[in-house]
Design a protein that fits this description.
Layout lengths: L10 E3 L8 H14 L4 E5 L6 H12 L3 E6 L9 E6 L6
Parallel strand pairs: 1-2
Antiparallel strand pairs: 2-4, 3-4
């Protein structure tokens, strides 16, 4: 399968990705954000059943590039999105 290319901004919408793709996607996305000087991002997982949010949060809790995370403010998606602060250091 060919890689999917998308613009790197401070926002990543996971609605078009399969749950099995999320871990690798976040890893690559965080690397690219840091390389571009983006250290605060919003990951949109939607509200739904909460399954995708739980998966995202599990990944974030263990990710070496994540300094912290929390629900996005209400005007930025509330509990349907997660604000992520990155460390600013590319992994080796």
């Amino acid at each position: 399968m060919d890689p999917i290319e998308f613009p790197i901004t401070e926002e990543l919408d996971l609605h078009t990705f399969r749950p099995s793709e999320v871990s690798d996607l976040l890893d690559d996305y965080f690397d690219e954000c840091i390389a571009r000087g983006i250290f605060s991002v919003r990951v949109i997982h939607g509200k739904g059943s909460g399954t995708l949010k739980k998966r995202v949060r599990t990944i974030l809790a263990k990710h070496p590039l994540v300094a912290g995370y929390a629900d996005a403010p209400p005007e930025a998606g509330g509990w349907g999105a997660t604000r992520v602060e990155l460390t600013g250091a590319l992994k080796k």
